[in-house]
Design a protein that fits this description.
The protein is α/β, with parallel strands linked by helices and 365 residues long. The protein is built from 15 helices and 15 strands. Helix content is 44%, strand content 16%. 45% of the residues are buried.
C-alpha cells in the first residue's frame, strides 16, 4: 500500500462508522493459541499476521507461495515482540507433504485460509490455474486439517454468490469444501487499498496524470477497510462454524470511489474518468448472499450468519474427482462443464466458454 493510500480516511468515502471490532475479551481465545495463516504475504494475510502477533499466540505459522511476499513479511515482522514465536514457510497449500509437516511439527489449532488467486479478468483467461489453486489447494488443506484436527476459517468473497466468473465459481466450491468439513467461511467485499485493488489502480492512474478507467457508471461493489476485514476474520473464527458475511449496509458506485480518490489525491486538478465496459466475469453489482440463502445477525457484531444449501458428500466427492481428471488432462472444456455441475448457479462468460472450446488439449484430439 502506498503512503498516499495509507493517509486516506476511507470512512469519509464509506459514509458510515467503522464496523464494530471484536471485544478485547473475546480475542483472548487467540492468546497462547497455535495458528496457521495461508496466503500470509497477501494484503489481508499480512495484516492478519501483524494483528495476531499483538495477541501473543503460542505459535504463528505463516505460509506463503510467493518468495518476495514472504520475504517482505519477514522484514515487517522483524521488530515484532517474541519474534521467535513466528515460523515462516515458503510453499503452497497444494503441497500435501508440506502441510502434513507443518501440522505435525507445529500442531496449529486453527488455520486461516487466505491463499487464493483473486484477479477476475486474469482468471477468466486462466481457468485451469484458478481451479487448481482455489479448489484443489483448498481441498488439500481441508484433507490435511481433517487428519490433524485443525479448525479452518476460509476467506471468501461476495463473488462466490451466484458467480459470473471463474474466480467466483472456484471460491464457491472452496466454501462448499470448508463448510462440508465443518469449518467456517467468511464472505467479504472489496477491501479498499489492498494490493492490486481498484483503489490502488486508481491511485496509480492519478499519480501518472492519466484518466481513471471505470468499467461502467452503474457498477457497484461492497467496500470495507483492511482493518475491518481483519476484525471480521477474527470475529468469524470465534463464532460457531458456518457461513458468514460482512454486515455491510449497502453497495457503492465504483465511479464515486474514483471521484473521491481524485479529490483526495489530486486536489485542484480535474481528473478525467473514462468508462470502458464490464469485463469478462464482471457483474454490474455483487451480492453477499444468494436468493436461496438466508441471513440473520450473528453473535458477533458486524457479521451476518448465513444458511446455505450444500451438496451431499458423495456428489461433491464424485464431482471433484471428475474435475480433477479434467484438470490433469488439461481439458478446459470438460473442466468448465464439471465446474458448472458443482456450482449450478454459475453462469460462465462467453469469453470463458470460447476459450474452453479452443483448449489446445481438446483440439489436439
Amino acid at each position: 500500500m502506498t503512503a498516499s493510500l495509507e493517509a486516506i480516511d476511507w470512512h469519509r468515502f464509506l459514509a458510515r462508522p467503522p464496523l464494530p471490532a471484536p471485544a478485547p475479551a473475546s480475542l483472548a481465545a487467540f492468546r497462547e493459541a497455535r495458528i496457521l495463516v495461508t496466503g500470509a504475504g497477501g494484503s489481508i494475510g499480512s495484516a492478519l499476521a501483524l494483528r495476531l502477533t499483538t495477541l501473543e499466540p503460542h505459535r504463528l505459522v505463516l505460509l506463503e507461495a510467493a518468495e518476495s511476499q514472504l520475504f517482505a513479511l519477514q522484514h515487517r515482522l522483524a521488530r515484532a515482540e517474541d519474534r521467535n514465536r513466528t515460523t515462516f514457510a515458503l510453499g503452497s497449500t497444494s503441497d500435501a507433504a508440506l502441510l502434513d509437516e507443518i501440522l505435525t511439527v507445529h500442531a496449529p489449532q486453527i488455520a486461516f485460509h487466505a491463499a487464493a488467486f483473486k484477479q477476475v479478468p486474469l482468471l477468466e483467461e486462466q481457468p485451469l490455474a484458478a481451479i487448481a489453486n482455489n479448489i484443489f489447494g483448498t481441498q488439500t488443506l481441508v484433507q490435511a486439517a481433517a487428519r490433524h484436527g485443525v479448525r479452518l476459517v476460509l476467506l471468501s468473497t461476495d463473488k462466490a454468490v451466484e458467480p459470473a466468473s471463474v474466480m467466483g465459481a472456484t471460491k464457491r466450491v472452496a466454501e462448499q469444501l470448508v463448510l462440508r468439513y465443518g469449518g467456517t467461511a467468511l464472505r467479504l467485499g472489496n477491501v479498499l487499498a489492498s494490493r492490486d485493488s481498484v483503489a490502488e489502480i486508481f491511485a496509480q492512474a492519478l499519480a501518472a496524470g492519466e484518466p481513471i478507467s471505470v468499467t461502467d457508471p452503474a457498477a457497484r461493489r461492497y467496500f470495507l477497510t483492511l482493518e475491518e476485514a481483519v476484525d471480521l476474520l477474527l470475529a468469524a473464527a470465534i463464532e460457531p462454524a458456518g457461513l458468514y458475511a460482512a454486515a455491510l449496509p449497502a453497495s457503492q458506485y465504483i465511479v464515486d470511489l474514483a471521484r473521491f480518490m481524485a479529490a483526495e489525491l489530486a486536489p485542484g486538478r480535474e481528473a478525467a474518468i473514462e468508462f470502458t465496459r464490464l469485463r469478462s466475469g464482471d457483474k454490474e453489482a455483487e451480492r453477499l448472499w444468494a436468493e436461496n440463502e438466508r441471513a440473520m445477525p450473528a453473535g458477533a457484531p458486524g457479521l451476518f450468519a448465513l444458511t446455505s444449501p450444500l451438496p451431499e458428500r458423495e456428489p461433491l466427492s464424485h464431482g471433484l474427482q471428475a474435475l480433477r481428471a479434467a484438470l490433469d488432462a488439461r481439458d478446459a472444456a470438460a473442466a468448465l462443464a464439471r465446474l458448472c455441475t458443482l456450482v449450478p448457479e454459475y453462469a460462465p462468460s462467453a469469453a470463458v466458454r470460447a476459450l474452453a472450446a479452443q483448449s489446445p488439449m481438446r483440439t489436439a484430439r
